């Protein structure tokens, strides 16, 4: 019973929030992500494989490389946007899972961990992985900002 009430309340909030955004002629960050994804993917794409739109294909031609900093804070919509923009093998992802702080807005550090696994195996997660030249993982293991004691403590916590 309480779950049903909560679900109904969230649905009502979503309707009211959507109406308010429409009345104010504004979008929130999640809207921007979803509209970007819609613009960059073919609407006839099957659920299991995104197909890039003509816009995404044009952007692929225009930009040779994609650089993503703070990759540990990416979410699934943002990852799909990258996949639409990249033929594979041209994305530099920089991040540290230990520094992921945006779970409240949908960050999914597991996406980064999966990319690390793929890099270890020499594979890629892209729309066209079979045509990608491969990838390289570079670990930056030296830290000049913190003392050894702090680093050891943080590494011990995250190794659990």
UniProtKB/TrEMBL annotation:
GO cellular component, one term: DNA helicase complex
InterPro entries the record matches: DNA_helicase_UvrD/REP (IPR000212), P-loop_NTPase (IPR027417), UvrD-like_ATP-bd (IPR014016)
Annotated keywords: ATP-binding, Helicase, Hydrolase, Nucleotide-binding
SUPFAM superfamilies recorded: P-loop containing nucleoside triphosphate hydrolases
Keyword Protease in annotation: no
One BP annotation, GO: recombinational repair
Full protein name: UvrD-like helicase ATP-binding domain-containing protein
